[in-house]
Amino acid sequence: MAQNDTVTRILDTAEVLFAERGFAETSLRTITSKAKVNLAAVNYHFGSKKSLIQSVFARYLDPFTERFHGALDELEARYAGKTIPLEELLETMARCVLEVPAERNSLKVFMRLLGLAYSQAQGHLRRYIQEEYGGVFTRFTALIRQATPELPDAERFWRLHFMLGTVIFTLSGLDALRDIAEKDYDEHVTVRDLVRRLRPVVVAAMQAPLPAPAPAPADAQEA
Amino acid sequence: MAQNDTVTRILDTAEVLFAERGFAETSLRTITSKAKVNLAAVNYHFGSKKSLIQSVFARYLDPFTERFHGALDELEARYAGKTIPLEELLETMARCVLEVPAERNSLKVFMRLLGLAYSQAQGHLRRYIQEEYGGVFTRFTALIRQATPELPDAERFWRLHFMLGTVIFTLSGLDALRDIAEKDYDEHVTVRDLVRRLRPVVVAAMQAPLPAPAPAPADAQEA
DNA sequence: TGTACATCAGTGAACGCGCGTTCACTGATGTAC
DNA sequence: TGTACATCAGTGAACGCGCGTTCACTGATGTAC
After folding, report:
1. What one-character DSSP code corresponds to residue A189?
2. Which domains does chain B have, with CATH numbers?
3. pLDDT less than 50: residues of chain B
4. A98, A201, A202, A207: best to mutate for the B interface, most B CBs within 10 A
5. What is the pLDDT of residue A89?
6. Which residues of A touch B163 (CB under 8 A)?
7. Which nucleotide comes closest to A37 if you measure CA to C1'?
8. Residues 6+ apart with CB under 8 A from B125
9. How far is B2 from chain A (nearest CA, A)?
């Protein structure tokens, strides 16, 4: 067995199992037996289960942020100080998300992991991701702000999270949804196909009319 | 202690803890000690942890489906065979979702639970919800279909799930998002406020232009 | 070139712990005769 | 009215199990002199 073969096998196996069942529901014994690796090897190489989880994320997020920063640099250079259109920004982000795990052949796993990062307890993980990768997200939202000057800041904040929810929810629950879709419409759906369907929806959502103003606090009875 | 006081205390405590940390991460010992109830009482009254989880959902979903069916009956009667507009359907669903837990004073908990039902492993739970409550969802989507005749069936299917993702993701991660929003925009956000913001976004998303047709399978090289 | 030592990936077995569940039991209340 | 029995909510203690982690150890490879 080569030098760091063990590390790679642990990560490869862990990411699939985590994506399938979540973090708490995946034991180190399951991971190491499936990876054909000694149980103690996880603690030897990673120190703890927590930091194995973080390493699984880092293997996706490190190349992603690097590529995404690069793509934004390129966009900013191309537009030379002028405002980058919303569609172009969204397109760029989608492209980076699609490209990174394509190299690792498991976009589905990446999306499931992102969904889990939000929905599972794992406070340490949210803190880790925020600290390590918060920067590129801040940069992106600043550009989105220039592209949508008509939106109040708070409205833009919420709409971005609405859309984040759409994407993460859809792509991370993809397997279940795909089963239903194929049974009902016998159509085989790929991730790229979904991204194609998502595009007009996300753009329309970001450009939707502003909501009605909040009603006054209900001190007064309705007439 | 009154007859079924114990059952209620278990359910009240369990739903809050489940919503905070998920199912696997909440032990019966934590629930029973916080509820000031004997550990064995959960298995005595509910039989197992699984069926406690299902009971927690039933306490929300039973009144919700009853009310939602009623509201749809009323809508159908009012429109007397004519097509019910999309906005009216969405509005009705939103109203029912908002009203039910308002009686129990914990919409936030309800939303977190729905989010968990999708994202946590818990296969038994998805099966249970599908079997018990699939019917009302089927009825609702049939009405949505009449209201959006211009959408291909598959497109409508996906857009409904996109929007489901938006709502569940936003409302179930509300606490975290609210913290960020209040820090950045010092604005206190209520659930009703979010629903007001969601309305135009969801309508715009459902009415977005159709996506570009899928590209031909990549046998041919790009020119 | 040979020997002693250091480094390091990996191992096998055990540790203590918290988990869901079980079981024999209690004590209060209702029911039959 | 009194007694025997059944029912049922609730209890305390223990069960076995799987968990993450630890630790003493092995064996291969590299390094110093």
Report:
1. -
2. 1-47 (1.10.10.60), 57-208 (1.10.357.10)
3. 1-2, 220-223
4. A201
5. 96
6. 166
7. C10
8. B23, B53, B54, B57, B117
9. 35
